[in-house]
Design a protein that fits this description.
The structure holds two protein chains of two kinds.
Chain A (H helix, E strand, L loop, with lengths): L3 E4 L2 E4 L5 E7 L6 E7 L6 E7 L5 E2 L8 E7 L2 E6 L8 E8 L14 E3 L3 E5 L1
Parallel strand pairs in A: 2-11
Antiparallel strand pairs in A: 1-3, 3-8, 4-5, 4-9, 5-6, 7-8, 9-10, 9-11
Chain B lengths: L1 E4 L3 E5 L4 E9 L5 E6 L6 E6 L3 E3 L6 E4 L4 E6 L8 E8 L5 E3 L3 E6 L1
Parallel strand pairs in B: 2-11
Antiparallel strand pairs in B: 1-3, 3-8, 4-5, 4-9, 6-7, 7-8, 9-10, 9-11
Classes of the chains: A mainly beta, B mainly beta.
């Protein structure tokens, strides 16, 4: 259990276009999902915290109008990179925390489950 | 803010034991995590500490001292496949994880 998927796994787009990345919790409900970005040979940097049914909380320095986050259901959060530029090329990773709302025991209340990541290349 | 430090690179021999240290200075603390990440892949969970002491967990036990802002991850009986980046992450009160820059471990024959 506790599987998080991301789609697409990689994408190449032209400068100026928008790209949507989906993050899904497949077998648990996630009130909160997190979006991270990782540049080559660097660590993960938290971009924003996505809360179901409310606005995302962005970290300092992350443009909320450029990185649109929607968390419309307990199993899906989307990140849209608008007007992408080459400097946005990066590895985008989401994670989800089991909210325990499904009624069963919260299996891993102290753990975040990471998606496999999306490699974005902007030409 | 969060300041999390760990060595950039380490090298160790197959079969040996290696210790990766992590020090942190954070505005809040709700647990410390260690993750393993192979190049181009997402991190995978290794261990979690919230109380002081050693958490025994197979080949990857981890230690925490909250008063010292210090943790270490032990990798026992090193295998070639353990060559990866090891990330120390501190969770603040909001459940978000703040990652260190990672330690790149190379295991040699």
């Amino acid at each position: 259990g506790a599987v998080v998927s991301q789609h697409p796994s990689w994408v190449i787009c032209k400068s100026g276009t928008s790209v949507k990345i989906e993050c899904r919790s497949l077998d648990f409900q996630a009130t909160t999902m997190f979006w991270y970005r990782q540049f080559p040979k660097q660590s993960l940097m938290l971009m924003a915290t996505s809360n179901e049914g409310s606005k995302a909380t962005y970290e300092q320095g992350v443009e909320k109008d450029k990185f649109l986050i929607n968390h419309a259901s307990l199993t899906l959060s989307t990140l849209t990179v608008t007007s992408a530029h080459p400097e946005d090329s990066s590895f985008y990773i989401c994670s989800a925390r089991d909210s325990g709302l499904a009624g069963g025991p919260v299996l891993y209340s102290n753990e975040q489950f990471f998606g496999p990541g999306t490699r974005l290349t902007v030409l | 803010g969060q300041n999390i430090d760990q060595p950039t690179e380490m090298t160790a021999t197959e079969g040996a034991i290696v210790q990766i240290n992590c020090t942190y200075q954070t505005s809040g603390f709700n647990g410390l995590f260690w993750y393993q990440q192979h190049a181009g892949e997402a991190p995978t969970f290794l261990s979690y500490n919230v109380l002081d002491g050693l958490e025994e967990k197979g080949r990857f036990p981890s230690f925490l001292s909250r008063s010292k802002g210090y943790s270490y991850l032990l990798l026992k009986e090193l295998q070639m496949k353990d060559s990866a980046s090891y990330l120390c992450a501190v969770r603040d009160s909001g459940y978000a994880l703040n990652f260190g820059k990672g330690t790149s471990l190379l295991v040699t024959p």
